[in-house]
Amino acid sequence: MALPGGQPSEREQQRIALVLPGGGARGAYEAGALSVLLPALEERGEKVSIYCGTSVGAINGVALASHAHLGPTQQARALLETWRSIDKHEVTGRLLGPDLAVGIGSYLGEALGLPGVRYRGLIQARPLRENIESWIDWPSLHDNVASGVVESVCAVATSLKTGAPVGFTERHGNLPLHDGAEEIHYEPVELDGNHIRASAAIPAIFPPVEVPGDGPASGWFVDGATRLNTPIRPAIDLGAERVIVISFEPYALSTQARIGSRRPGFADIAANVLDGLLTDQVVADIQRLVAINSFFAESTETTSKRARAYRESRRRRHYRKIGYALVAPRTRRRLGRLAERIFERRFGGFGALRDIDLALMARVLGGGPSRGELLTFLFFDPAFIEALIDAGRRDARFWLSRHPHLWCSDASHDFDLDPGPPVKLEESAIEEFRSLRGRG
């Protein structure tokens, strides 16, 4: 039974997870979207209790969890204040200077096989390390988890030892971790700056981060986005029944031309690689979620014996329907165009004198729309951050205008996905089950 104003009763409240992908400076877009969605949750008498993030999404998620005791609206306000206080040099340091020379020298030294020389990344890690400690209220984070205000916090990084994603997870009490996660190893920890920096260690840009200890959750790590940029699966494994997912591109694959017939440059190639690593992962994960909701999710009233047998053969729990709220730009590469426009306005021509580091970086990237895509990762300019916040707020309001009660689980509503019987998908699943049974 719902309370007046559409609020769910305590009995109806479900575990809500926040799923935040990586994307560098685009994290400001997440902050803007959440400044609308978290107060909307509060109005409904709901709140997030599970936080899952990768890279900058891990930073945002852990920061939000550390302020969970303040309530959703104050959480969102604190995150906005943090983003509005960020300066580029607090994240990347100075590009021009001795650190760049050391970074290039370490690369050449390793390439030439000089004893004891290892590549350390082009950007110094010290500024980010110092600021993660100031951005996150660690004592409050641990108190919130210990008291149950927060059920779980998960930061995803990629292990260089195994090549697989690891979810560093701080959890309340002895809450059970649901099965079915052979693709990711969950490691119970008391989160600290090492785990978050490991999640955000962009390969070739930042150096790998070492996490001490034994087992698969120790050793050297890089950015979790290289393997699992949108940790929907960890959120569900941790018990989420509803998820809020933020993306930086529309939730649909696109074949829209990026460069037309011209010869591609460095920025085009790099942007295409990032699309494959980051954007396409998000789209695929979301489409899998909505397809399962439409085709395979079960309830106690309607149960498919074949679907249950298939899941049981793989030692998985039965599918269940997950409500979702999805926020993303409505047009492809909108954030990249925004970055390019603001960069040209502030740093084009003689404006380059405002920040020689940034002007040099943009020069190296070349021109065209692909440069804007790459700038969105490292363009920690106050004007761009504010524009990202505004864009996130607008897109969150658009979701609420289409879903006044916030939640949806019907793929036909937002994805034009026909909820009829998925013949090919189900036949494929059944054939896999039969082959497994035959080997048994």
List the helices and strands and how they pair.
Elements: E1 16-20, H1 27-43, E2 50-54, H2 56-66, H3 72-84, H4 88-91, H5 98-111, H6 126-135, H7 138-147, E3 152-159, E4 165-171, E5 185-188, H8 193-199, E6 209-211, E7 219-223, H9 232-237, E8 242-246, H10 266-295, H11 305-313, E9 323-327, H12 334-347, H13 356-365, H14 369-378, H15 382-402, H16 411-414, H17 423-439
Parallel strand pairs: 1-2, 1-8, 2-3, 4-5, 8-9
Antiparallel strand pairs: 3-4, 3-7, 6-7
Helix pairs in contact: 1-3, 1-15, 2-3, 2-7, 6-8, 10-14, 11-17, 12-14, 12-15
Describe, in plain words, how this protein is organized in 3D:
By secondary structure, the protein is of the alpha/beta class. The protein has 17 helices and nine strands. It has helices spanning 27-43, 56-66, 72-84, 88-91, 98-111, 126-135, 138-147, 193-199, 232-237, 266-295, 305-313, 334-347, 356-365, 369-378, 382-402, 411-414, 423-439, and strands at 16-20, 50-54, 152-159, 165-171, 185-188, 209-211, 219-223, 242-246, 323-327. Strands 1, 2, 3, 4, 5, 6, 7, 8 and 9 form a nine-stranded mixed beta sheet that branches. Strand 3 (152-159) and strand 4 (165-171) form a beta hairpin. The longest helix is centred in the middle third of the chain and has 30 residues, at 266-295. The protein is globular and about 65 Å long. The termini are far apart.
